[in-house]
Amino acid sequence: MAGLIDDPNDPRWQEAERRDQFLRELLKATGWKATRDVVDAARMTFGVSRSTVYRIISRFLASRRASSLVPADRGTPRGAKRVDSKVERVIAEQINRVWLKKEKPNMRALIERVHEACRIDGLRLPHRSTIQRRVDELDVLRAARRRGETALEAAATPSAGNYRADKPNEIWQIDHTIVDMIVVDEETRLPIGRPVLTIAIDVCTRMVAGFYLSLDPPSSVSVGLCLLHAVYDKTSWLQERNIDYPWPVAGIPSILHCDNGAEFHSKSLQAACREYGIKLVHRPPATPRFGGHIERLIGTMMGAVHILPGTTFSNTKIRDGYASEQHAIFTLRELERWLAVEITGRYQQRIHSSLLRPPLAVWREGQGEVSCDLPPDRMAFWTSFLPEARRRLLKDGIHLEKIRYWSDVLSRDLGRREELLVKYDPRDLSRIFVRRPEGHYIEARYRNLSYPAITIWEWRNAKRRLFDLGKRDLSEETIFSALALQRRIEDDAASASAAARRKIVRRPRSAKQDAPIELSGVDTSKQHDGLDDMEFWE
Description:
CATH superfamily of the largest domain: Ribonuclease H-like superfamily/Ribonuclease H
Strand order of the largest sheet: 8-11-12-13-10-9
Number of strands: 13
InterPro entries: Integrase_cat-core, Mu_I-gamma, RNaseH-like_sf, RNaseH_sf, Transposase-like_Mu_C, Transposase_Mu_C
Shape: globular
Helix content: 40-55%
Largest sheet: 6 strands, antiparallel
Organism: Methylocystis hirsuta
Number of helices: 21
Distance between the termini: 18 Å
Mean pLDDT: 80
Pfam families: HTH_Tnp_Mu_2 (PF09039), Mu-transpos_C (PF09299), rve (PF00665)
GO molecular function: nucleic acid binding
Oligomer: single chain
Domain Integrase catalytic: 164-367
């Protein structure tokens, strides 16, 4: 199917992104209605018939995902390169060797070198416009740096002074930080360590868009859960925590601005942003000033945390002998609620030094310009941020990390030769999400349902220890047995070791109590128009 393209460089996917950018803006302006003006504009831009435009818009309105706009596999896709692949390789090599040099050669010199290389290899000479287009497709900022074009680099680089947004949800900045505070276990009330906060801010209004607090290291999953919290309505989330302050931020940002951490360059994050029309922008390396808004917000939040029992302060000099672990009293859930009150009841209500007004007042003033472009399918939105792998479907199921998974629905696909796309949550390996050939995801569980839910960190650590002991031919039974032994050791050590208590707290909840596994971070209490969650699971 056309909608199952994973390569971002595929011409059909690039055409889908072009259609997405054009249609999303038009439909936002009309309240997501396919008016005559929208249809006429799309027909002229896409060069297709009116009936085809209606079909395209109908598919897009059902999911609001860019993949629904991938053109069919008939004919030559628009933007497809007709040049021979060997000629393309010669052009790319000469651009790298000749064009991207500090000597800044002109276009004529590049064309001559490309033609010379093609003659040597007996290839057809590409037209000068073809070579020019390949140069124009280069990343402007990176090309300017390699060519030493300082003026062009300065013009293409955002600065802290002019990096601004004119309306809400235009630009969000997102980042992680280790919280300056020790939290305790909910059961033993003993210290377990410092959690990680992932938080996003709306640049225009300085409103906190959303956050996610956990004991797990930063990853594309924590980014996805932070965005899930930020994008959707927070009314029920606040009610569950008995918080009465308003938090009206909702909708999908046009731009997500972040640093160069590995989780922000992950394939899953890039694919999810493309799918939902979010432009992912990375700030230049080693330039924290370009993330000034989120850095100041994190500083404000940590300054507030420094008054709480169990704080570690910002450095050891300021701590000055304060015994953080002895004074720690907050659990992870209690700290999450405290941060939510700090954000909604204090930070967003008081006058901001740059805005000279409270962020909440600025948001409400511009609320008419806010596009609450909510993805109809919450589950599909969240899973798009999960890490992925490709696996063959075997007779005994799908194998991931030496664990076998199965669902009765998969029996329909036995015998197919192509690999299936698998999404998984590193915090809970008891289930995976498998994309079937027609594009729908289904949930697959352990083939052996007696195995406990585990995290990917526990699993890999158990495999590594067995490998170090000289055991090379590992099976899932062997690894789960070793994992059970490690958990018993951790449980025995919990009274003395904060590290052991931290590992216990990070276990999936179903490993500690007989309860159904829920999708963490997904607010399913409020439905929106479009596909509901059950349709996502067929």
